[in-house]
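User: Fold this; tokens only.

Assistant: Input:
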Amino acid sequence: YCEIADKPILSYALETLASIGKIHGIVVGLAKGDRWWSEKIAGSYNILGTYTGGCSRAETVLRGLEFLGPHSQTDDWVLVHDAARPCIQASDVEHLIKERGSLSSGAILAVPISDTVKRSNGKNLVKETVSRETLWHAQTPQLFPFEVLRNALRESDLSLVTDEASVMEAMGYRPRLVRGRVDNLKVTTVEDLELAALILRARIQEGIG
């Protein structure tokens, strides 16, 4: 609910997703006792409803899929997006949907790592340099068949799941990497929020959605 240009960062992601015709509806996981949703988020954004999230990302996603159950068909696809990624662009989501393929493995937005990568020895000393040739930064949205993802999460130890792709990988699937944009950043720190503000304000000035 931190604001950029007088609007919560969550609103930016919701506006983008709601503008995509292939997305039929959105559900949002909220913290228990959330008191800001009804006050801060205006407009429908094609919201099907909200639900109380869990103690981890994976549990929150699974609860969201269970909530979506009555609204979904077994052959539907579902996008999972971090509310803290306000800079996502509709064109990237549309590209992800287009490039998903027809297989059940799904696809995720990601960016190849361009920096030199070091592995530490656990004491803030360099142990080795890791080849970056095949390494990518995973982003969201991540796109999977609804029923396949729900079943995979139901059968997993949710405390060990870091993203939806990882649980699919554990089940033997190989999600497709679809190149996204570096500016689809996740707001985790104050510095991230400042950078997101620069990106979003620049887009507002340029009239880019």
